[in-house]
Amino acid sequence: AFGGNTDLTLQVLEQVDSTNTRLEQMRRQGMAPPMACLADIQWAGRGRRGRQWLMPPGAGLPLSILWSIRHWPAPDPTITLAAGVVVIRVLEALGARGLSLKWPNDILVHGRKLGGILVEGHAQAGAGVDLILGLGLNLRLPRDLPIDQPYGDLRDAGLDLDVSRNVLAARLLEALTDMLATYPEPGFAAYRTPWQAHDACAGRPVLIRGARTLEGTGCGVDAGGRLQVLTAEGMVSVEAGEVSLRFA
Ligand code: ATP
């Protein structure tokens, strides 16, 4: 069991396919939230939309939390954004610099991808939502991985792992479970301003690919966590769902 006011069951594994998948299996087997899973090696990490999250042995910290929120009819996409704020706060408190957030689910260091958040939810007929919040964070990644976008690790943030993995994992778990325990009231209202203070897209040209392609300038997020993009046709709200964002 882990920490303060929750009875979090923590599973620490040498290796796992994916910490999110592992918690999903345990959920299906009837294990009750809250639970968390950490691993040294994650060999089939997942991103959104079936994309791969690469993590060579020892190079990253994969961590997932299974949490139940009552009175919620469906998973709320703003949880992903709030989790980004929480992760940045933990890393900055440890001395990391140059961090920002790229809508909807990326944590950047000097504009390069340092980590990703993957929230998967299950509505429980009349009983709220079970969600699995996963974080993949790059600690010390080889520079030549086949990743199709710029990436970085905690060394680039000035941490160079003088911080131990265990301390980092404990702080992240504590802060993320605190956030989950106090969501949904007041929910994203408490995170929108800090999210926007770290918005990597604010005032920058962005290109959004999804069902249609959209070009414009990032203008923060609305109260529902939708990205606001100023296009030639005016302001457009973009839902996270099936879209991918790049700097244009
Ligand atoms: P995008 O960030 O391109 O919009 P996405 O949100 O669909 O994509 P994510 O779920 O954030 O994707 O993560 C998967 C993508 O992240 C991969 O396709 C790859 O480009 C990149 N990636 C994979 N492993 C890593 C890693 N260890 N560090 C940084 N980026 C990675």
Short description:
The chain is α+β, with helices and mostly antiparallel strands and 248 residues long.
Commentary on this structure:
By secondary structure, this protein is α+β, with helices and mostly antiparallel strands. The protein has 2 domains: 9-197, Bira Bifunctional Protein, Domain 2 (BirA Bifunctional Protein, domain 2), CATH 3.30.930; 205-247, SH3 type barrels (Roll), CATH 2.30.30.100. The chain has helices spanning 19-28, 78-93, 165-182, 192-197, and strands spanning 9-16, 35-42, 45-46, 52-53, 60-69, 99-102, 106-109, 112-123, 129-138, 205-209, 213-221, 227-231, 234-238, 244-247. The strands form 3 sheets. The chain has a 7-stranded mixed beta sheet with strand order 1-2-5-9-8-7-6, with helices on both faces. Helix 2 crosses helix 3 (165-182). The chain starts with 8 loop residues before the first strand and ends with a strand. Bound molecules: adenosine-5'-triphosphate (ATP). Adenosine-5'-triphosphate (ATP) binds next to strand 4, strand 8 and strand 14.
